């Protein structure tokens, strides 16, 4: 155990290592709290704290009356330099992807939308609420805002396939750049309802501003991801062979 590391953190890291190394396989029941207490020579309170944290982070699933099991692997999504659709990213991981339209409406631009999309106040904006699922389990709740002048008349088919591909194919609008802001938030009533998680559960929150090839802002979105079902891959490319950090 590392110096200054708490007992429950040490146990959590050891169990996580067993999960990631496939010593504890997906769907497998792990040792009971009592068995873990004996293995690590610690109290039940310490073991329970480690298990609670791994459950909250989505690595374990506790089933009432049956025990604690290794949860399904988290969904990987790439944030940088990818043109792959959500469906493609999920299906390559052996899962079935689904995008469900919750609501599609036209609203007047608010001050916040005006700021992010460079539109005039009260300009018509298409507000698109969607839920993304993997193997029928919700992973993401998203609200997208697209100016009417950019792509008038977005419909359910556009929303439930790929918005960006629809913009290119049907509106001749080509995505060139996205800027993303990432933070951790706690699920409110709406988010917890759509994502099927407990109120106050930790979620990744990403705000995205998309621009076309001419630098015009074409979309502003707010996305909430279940923290226990999602992780992200970030790739960085560096020019040349410089050794500078």
TrEMBL record:
SUPFAM superfamilies, alphabetized: Chorismate lyase-like (SSF64288), Winged helix' DNA-binding domain (SSF46785)
Limits of the HTH gntR-type domain: 5-73
GO MF, one annotated term: DNA-binding transcription factor activity
InterPro entries from the UniProt entry: Bact_HTH_transcr_reg (IPR050679), Chorismate_lyase_/UTRA_dom_sf (IPR028978), Tscrpt_reg_HTH_GntR (IPR000524), UTRA (IPR011663), WH-like_DNA-bd_sf (IPR036388), WH_DNA-bd_sf (IPR036390)
KW Transcription (keyword) present: yes
Keywords, ordered alphabetically: DNA-binding, Transcription, Transcription regulation
Taxonomic superkingdom: Bacteria
Record SMART domains: HTH_GNTR (SM00345), UTRA (SM00866)
GO biological process: negative regulation of DNA-templated transcription
Pfam families: GntR, UTRA
Entry-linked CDD domains: WHTH_GntR
Protein name according to UniProt: GntR family transcriptional regulator
